[in-house]
Amino acid sequence: MRKVVAKFGGSNLKKKEDIQKLVNVIKAYNRPMVIVVSAFYGITNHLIKSLEEVKQDESKIKGLTNFLLTMKEEVIRENFDDEKWARDTLNKVERRIEELERYLIGVHYIGAVPEFVEDVILSFGERLSSLILAGILASKGVDAEEALPEEMPLITDGEFGNATVIYEAAEQGVKRRLDAEKVFVVPGFYGVSEEGKVTLLGRGGSDYSAAALARCLGAESLDVWKDVDGFMSADPKLVSCPKRIETLTYTEAAELSYFGAGILHPRTVEPLKEVGIPIHIGNIDTFNESITPRTVVQTYKTITDSIVKSVTYSDDFCILKLRGADVGMKKGVLAKVSVALDRAGINIKSVITSQIAINILLSAKDIKKAFGVIEALQLSAVTELVAIEQISTIAAVGEGLLDHPGIAGRLFSALACEDINVKMIVSGASSVATYFVVASQDRERAIKAIHAAFFN
To answer: Which domains occur in the chain, in start order?
Structure first.
């Protein structure tokens, strides 16, 4: 029987009731499967913050390890009925935290955090989650076992901080390690290089690692359990009565994730699209003994009457504008800029050019660094370099978007009625998405206006 891979995020691991819901969901499957877990809510951020403090202050090491041990002991006491199981799991947690402490002592004494050490340290949030959850499940009668990525191994390309799984290299080992007819609990967020070094799969990468495992196993499905009702026609916090989307194609889901929908990590679709493994989105808060998904992501295309299935947004965009009389036509300008940004470790999200301007869309966190990198190039064709911040990128997504006339007109009409100025628009880069840039202060009104135009 093909296995199911199910992923549970940090939002499913906040308090005792959340863990009990998770256990109930796993029991409802009543079959061998693979569980992928994130760190408990907020732990990764705590580790990131502590890394900087530990470099300067040795006392921060004990502060962090004591915090983790106290927190985990509380979770164990709340969720174990059997004292022997609780004591055994706590002993394992203590040993794992001692391992983390040794890395932190090394960081303090060298006064720096090498990339490979940072990746190991940040992976401990997930390692503690998997250890505790495996113990909880086993104590409640589930035949469960922790399986670490390094034991398979889940082989990556070796890039620290944002690695990619090499499926062909990882497949055989993953199948062998996860072959037994039991429930395996795997920490998400990381794999290992061919040399055996821990490499993170990018922030929020537990979704991606779950998808990679599903790909290697040829899984029946990847089931992602959230505390929301699947993909919606818009953010329920911004619009009243959004519609739940029952089915999406892989491409639609990828675009919605890229532009901030927050249901899936943007890379989750990548391993599964080629092999046609569906993604099931479940709502753990409304679970009632049924594992029926709220949204299914699959190959099959559906075109709705409104064409647009969802409108989403991201505030993680800024524009770096290079101006010059013929900057868009000058040979080599864009190539030099791209190479310089790549060497600086800065990802380009999109590029839009004209005769007199090159507009580069970047993540908000990179804009200041990118400005300095390009300014240092002293390109003669660039007469002005402008950083545009405080913007939101809004995307309308749906199959058939480019094949049906009038969609862009309806989008602009909705915004014009609210006197919202569009700074930039891109259509055609994706067959299922049109996106545009507005001032951040206009974002909420823009979402509401577009949603009303297409769904009311």
So the answer is: 4-298 (3.40.1160.10), 311-455 (3.30.2130.10)
